[in-house]
Amino acid sequence: MAEITNTTGGGHRKNRGHRSPKPAPRVDMTPMVDLGFLLITFFMLSMKLSDPQALQWDKRISETNDPVPECVVLNILVDSADRVYTYEGEDFKTLRSTSFNDTGLIQIVMQKGKRVKTECGLGKDGQPHKLICLIKLLPGTRYQNLTDVIDEMNITHSFYSIQEPLAEEIAALKDKEKELLAETKP
To answer: pTM here?
Structure first.
């Protein structure tokens, strides 16, 4: 148990008019530290690490080697000028520009999610396929843009993966930017 020790000077008092200060009692906390370590050790050894509630891992896309149908993929490219481009599957011809506002990226993701459920058939488990978004950040993209895109994925409950952009995608973006510049010039 904890022990309180009080060290007072014994002996006799010579001056009765002045009181000598009494030292504060000292509490020995060594047994309490021992008890703390015993409790920590007990709970560490009694926790099941294999139990899913003990450690929860974020699993956005499963680690299967099954081929993913092209119709369930939406590619999202974000550049350094805060512009967002999307295209479906592997078809660069469907590349279009959008924005982060309420009528932009979130609407495209929601519409594609609905089309995936109706047009892409059923998976192995007999359930409709789910939309998979591939987020690709071009060099110079701000961190805020990444958080905005991930917020949209969480709002729409879409599966997503962050990947490096392909060289073909960068070339298609340059062509798209040239088209946009040509359209704005009279």
So the answer is: 0.59
